[in-house]
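Entry 14. Ran structure prediction on the chain below.
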Amino acid sequence: MTTKTAAPAACCAPLAAATISEEEAVATAELFKALADPARVRIVNALARSPEPVCACEFEPALSLSQPTVSHHLKRLTDAGLLDREQRGKWAHFSLKPDAVETLAAVADLKGRVADVRHR
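Output, structure tokens:
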């Protein structure tokens, strides 16, 4: 059993940050590009709900997609630093990276800023 971990999710600034550098903007855009497909959003959703890594083979019927298409989506998410990939025999199992969960939560946190804007 081998585990392959992609580079950590790039450091992204929260969208409500006072300023975002060019590097942070690029990293944040890359994160959103990785999630810019409904199938990838559904994969992240399934992995977020699963207590254990999920076999790639389970996504084909769940998403009604072919194996090559599922593999493409899993690769994009893994390359973006959102997923860990573990090889178990001939099957790959995927899970959300803990730091990716924190990054996604931080980037999308607009609660305080949206409240400030509404009260002006």
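The first helix runs from residue 22 to 34. Will compare against last week's run tomorrow.
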